[in-house]
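Let's do one together. I've listed all components of the complex below, 1268 residues spread over two lines.
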Amino acid sequence: MNSYQKTKLALGVAALMPTFANAQFLHGIVVDRQNQPIANANIRLESGNAQVKTDQSGRFKLPANSGEQEIHIFTKGYAHLHQNIQVPASGLSNQRFELSQSPIEVIDVVAAPVHLSVMESATPVTVLGGETLRRQQAATLGDSLEKLVGVQTNFHGNVASTPIIRGLSGPRVMIAKNGLDVGDVSRTGPDHSIAAEASTSQQIEVLRGPATLFYGSGAIGGVVNVVDKRVPTNNQTTGEWSLEHSTVNDKNLANFNVTSGWNNIAVYADGYWRESDSYEIPVEPGIVENSQEESDGFTLGASYLFDQGYVGVSVEQFNREYGIPGHSHGGEHSDEAESVYADLEQTQVQVLSELNFNNHPLIKKVSTRAAFTDYQHMEIENGQVGTLFDNQNNEIKLEIEHQAFAHWHGGMSLQVKTSEFSAVGDEAFTPASDTDAFALAFMEEKHFDEFLLQLGARVERVEISTDNLLLPSLDMHEHDDGEHDDSDEHSHDHGHEHDETVTRVFDVEQTFTPVSLSTGVVWKFMPGYNFAVSLSHAERAPSAAELMSFGPHIGTGSYEVGALFELVETKGEHSFVLNETPIELETSQNIDLTFRKSEGALGFVFNAFYNQVDNYYYQKTTGLYAEFSHDHDHGDEHDHGDEHDHGDEEAHVDELPVYWMATDDVILKGFEAQVAWQASPALKLTLLSDYVSAELKNGQPLPRTPPLRFVGQVSYSAFGLNTDLDITRYQSQDDVAPNETETDGYTLVNLHFSYDLRVFEQETSLYFSVKNLTDTQARVHSSYLKELAPRPGRDFTIGLRGYF
Amino acid sequence: MQSYLKLKPLAVLISALTLVACGDAETNIVEKDPIEVPDDDHDHNDDHDHGDGYLIDSAGRLVVLSAASNHADVYDLDEISLLKTFSLDSELPALSASAGYRYAMLNYRSADKVNFIDGGLFREDHGDHLHDFEQDPALTDYEVTGSRPTHIVNHDGQTAIFFDGNSETGENAAVIVLTDADISGESSDLATLEYSINMHGVAKPAGDMLVSTVRRSDDENTSNAKVLPDQVAVYHRHDDHFHQEHVFTELCPDLHGAGQQEHHYIFGCSDGVLVAVAEDESFSAVKIDNIDAVGDLRIGTVYAHHDASTAIGVASAHGGGPAVLVTLDAENAQMSEIDWQPLTDATPVAYAFSHDGEHFLILDNQAQLTFLSEQSEGEQNKWVFDERISISDEDVSQMPEGYGFKMTVAQNSDMVYVADPIAQHIIAVDLHDKTTEEVVELNYAPAAITWLGIAEEEEHDHDH
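Okay, and this is what the predicted structure of the assembly comes out as:
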C-alpha cells in the first residue's frame, strides 16, 4: 500500500472517531526494540472506542479522557501491547510504546466483548487472515482451514469438506458468517457443502474447544467464523481481486471485493466464480469421478456511518453445484455409475450495527447482528431431484458492552435464533422440524497486574419440534457368516400377500436448557511469556437430526436412527420402538492449558486439553442391515395384471448398515503445538503439531479421528519474492472404531512462490504453487470417502492477485 | 389433507424431565394416527385410499394458449384461479402434456424447438411412500432442439419427439426420448435416434425399446409421398443413442400415425394397418387390409389405451373433413367400421380416450361430444356409439377463423375439459354424469388446452 493510500486510511479512520466533549489527547510514538518507528500500527483505548493508526514516523494522536487508561497496540508481526497509563487533565504527549516482534501472526477476533487472540486469551483461538488465508484458501472451508493447528479436514472429495476441530465436527462445530449462523444443512451430512466462501472473506476465526459461551449450543467442539466486510465500517476505497488456475482439476477461480463510499455512506461488493472438473489422483482409477464443482456468488452491502458507529445491511447470494462422489446406494450396486450432484442456493441478508456511547455512565457499546437466511439444497440423481433440503434460518444477536467498571470489561449478549428445516426425498432421513433458541450470556474480563481473568456464563433455551416424527416398521437382518438368504430371514416380499406396513407418527416437542460456564486465567509470569488455564462446563442440546432421524442417509452410506428411538429385541427379532429413557443434554467438562512465548525472534504456543463429555451422542453400529427400495425410475413401473412375477425383478432393493444414535461418555484429549522462529528478517521457520485421542470411556476409539500430525514451514522473503515450503506429515491412524480400517500415514509437500509486482501503482502479486509435489497417495482417515477419494495428486496453480 | 393431520392424540407416551448438571431437558411426545400402507405391489389404486400425508388431492391444472396475444395461462382447477401467465414466442406452438403430466410441451415446429412449462404438480416415488409436490408453474429454461419436431408421443412415462428433418436444409430426421425427470433435471444427454434422411415419421417408446419408422431410398419406398416412411424397425437404447435391432419386412406405404397396445404397435398405412409385435427378443408383424368402409381415405391416426382391448383407427382426408372410424383388433388382425352416428356436417376436431379407457371421445365441429364404448360381440370387441352430449349453446358458424373446439382429459378424474373459442370459456364435462359446467371464463379465444397434474394411474394414452 503506498503512502497516499495510508493517509487516506488514517483519515478514513479519523472520520469514524467519536467526538469527545472536553477530551484530552494522547500523543505518542510506537517503535520496535531497535527503536525503529512502526508505521500503520493500531492504537485503541479499552475505555473508549477510538482507534487510530500510526503514520510513517510511528506517531499517533488519540483522544483520551483523563485518568487511568488501558491502551492496546497491535500490528502485524508484533506482539500485542497492553499497557496502563495515567492521562492527566492536560493530556499526554510524546509517550513511547515499544512493541516486541512476534513470529506467530496475531490477529484479534473481531467483535468479541473480551479479548480473543492466539496470544492473549485463556481459550485457544486461531485467526487466519491476510496472505496466509489467501495462500491456504480452498474451495471448501474444511480444506481452507486444515493447515491450522488443531483443525483438520474431513476431506469429502474436494467438494464438501468440513473442518474437524480437535476431533469433533458435524453438529458440534458451529459455522458462522460474521458471527451469525451460516444457516445451511452442512451439519447434518458430510456430503453437504458449507455455504461460506473463503476467497472473499477477510479473516476466518477458529475457536478450538467449547465456544458455547459465545455461540451457543452447537459450538461445544468449537467455532469457525468467516468474517468479511459485507457491512462496511469505513468508506475508503480498498479492494482486492484475483484470478487463478489449477491443473489437478482444471480449476478456474476469479474473485474480487471492493469497499468504497462517500460522505456517510459506505458500500461493499464482492463476487466470485469458480469452476472445476473432477480431480486427478495418483492411484487408480486416476480420477475421482463426479468431484467437479461450480460455484458463484456475490454480496452487496451498504452502511451508514455516523459518529457513534454504523448501521448497515447486506445481501448475499451463494450458489454451488457439486458432484457427490461415491454416492452409491448400498454396497451391491456401487458399480453402477450414477451421476449424483447437489445444487445449493442460499440467500442471506445480514443487518449489522454498532453504536458507541462514549459518555454514557453504563453502556459503552451496543452491537446488533441479524441474519435472515433462505437455504435450499437439492440432490439430483440421474436428472431427478432425489432429495430437497430447505432451511429457513433467522437470527438476531444483541451485544451490550458496559463501560469499564473497576477495570472489568465485558458485556452481555442476547440471542434469538429460529430454524425451519425440511427435507423431502430419498435422503429425507429426518422429518421437517423447527428449532427455536433463545440465549442470554455474560462475559467479563479484568487485568490484575500480570493476570488476566476471563469469566463467562450462558444459559440457553432450545426447543425442537416436529409434527411428523415417523417410526416405520423396518425390515432388518443380521449378516451371519457373510451370507444371507433373503427369503428365509426377512419378510419383505410375500408375493401376493396383502401385508400392511404401519408407520407410527408422533408429534414431538423437545425442550432443552443448556448452561455453559467458563473461567480462565492468563498469567504473564515474565515479560513475553504467559501461561493460561481455562476451565469450562459446556452443554449441548442434540440436534433435530440426532434425535429424529429414521431413514437411509446416502451421504454416510448408513441407515440412521435417532436418539428418540431405541432398539429392542423380542424373540430374536430386532425392532425400533420409542425411546422411553429421558433424552439428556450432552455435557462436557473441560480443561485447557496454554503456554506461550509471545515476544522475540522465537515464539511458541503449546496447548493441552482434556475434555470429558457425558452423554456424547454418537452413531452406534447395531450389526443390523436395513433394506430400502430406491426407485430410480420414479413412477414408471407398472404391472399388467397378468404377469405377476416380474414386479419383483424390477424392485431395486439396497441394504444399508443400521446406526443408532446412542449416548455414552467420551474422553477427548490431546495437544497442539506451534513454534515459530524469525531467523532473519527474510527467513521464518514454523513447526506445528497436533494430536487428539477420542475414546469412549471403555477405551473404544471414535471413528474418523484425525491422526497425529507434524507440519514444518519455511518462509523466505527477499527482493519481492516470497517462498513458502510446507511439509506436512500425517502419521498412520490405528486407533480405529469397530468396523473401521486403519489408515497409512503420508507426507505432503507444498511449495508456494509469490512475486510482488507493481502494476498501475497497485500492489499486485503473481503467484505459483505446487501442492502434493511428490504426487503421493494420501488417504484421509477422517474422511467418509477414505477408500474412494484420496487427496488430489500433484497440482500446479498459477494466479494473479491485486490490492487497491 | 388427510385426517391424521388433524392432531388426534392417542396417548401421551412420554413426559420426562431430567436434570443434568445445571441444564435440563424435557421431552413431550404425542402419538398420532399411524400411516398404514398396504404392502401390495399389484394394486396401484390403493395408493390413493390411505392418508399418508404426502399425497395431494388436486383436480390439477390447465394450460390454455391464446393465439391472439401469444401467451399461455396456467389455471388451478381446485381454486379455479389463474396461477401464472407466460409469454410465448411469436409462432403459436402445438400444445401437449409430457408423459408424466407435469409439463406442458410447447412444440415450435418451424423454430425447431420444444419448450416446457412446469405445471408444478408432480409425484415422486420415495421408496416407502409416494410424495406429491405442489409448486408454482414456471416456464423452464430447458429446451429440446432439432429440425422440425412434429409428432410427439407419450407412452409409459416416456415421450418420443419425432423430428422430421428438413430436406431443403439437408437436415435429417431424429427421435429424442425423454422423461419428466429429464426435463426437471435439464438433461443434456437425451437418448437420440438419428436417421440419415428426413421423413415425416413417428416413434413409440417402450422402456429401453423404441419402435420407429424407416424411410427407405426413394426407389425402394412404396409410399406415394416419399417423405412418408414405409417400414418399421425396433431400436434398442444404449446410453444416449439407439441401435437398430430388427426391421419388419412387412411394408406400410404412406405410413402415418401409430398406436400401441401391450406389445402390439399399430401403424396406419394407405392400404391398411401394420401391426408389429415386439416382445422381448421376438418380432413379428401382420398386415390388416383396409375394409371397404375406409374407401378412398386412409387410416392416418391410431388411438389405443391399455385398458381397452382394441384400438381405434381414424381415416380422414388430410386436414380434416368427414372421418371414418374403425375398430382395430390387433390380436385377431381384424378391422371393423364404427358407426359413431354423427350429426349432419359433423367433422371430428378432437379425439381422446377417457382416462380409464372406458370411453372413446369424439369432439366435433358441431359442438357435440360423442361417447363410444367397447362392446364384445361374440369373440370380438368393438367400439360402438354410446351417447352424445352438446358442449356449447353457441352458433357454431361463429367459430373464429383458424380456431376449433379443443379438449383435454384429466388423468385423475372423470373430467374432460373443452375449450370453446366462441363462448371464450372452458367447460368441464363429467364423463360419469354426462354433465357440463363452465369452469373458466376467458377474455380471449382459447387456441389450445392441456391438462397437467398428478395422474391417478400410469398413463397409457397412445394418441398423437
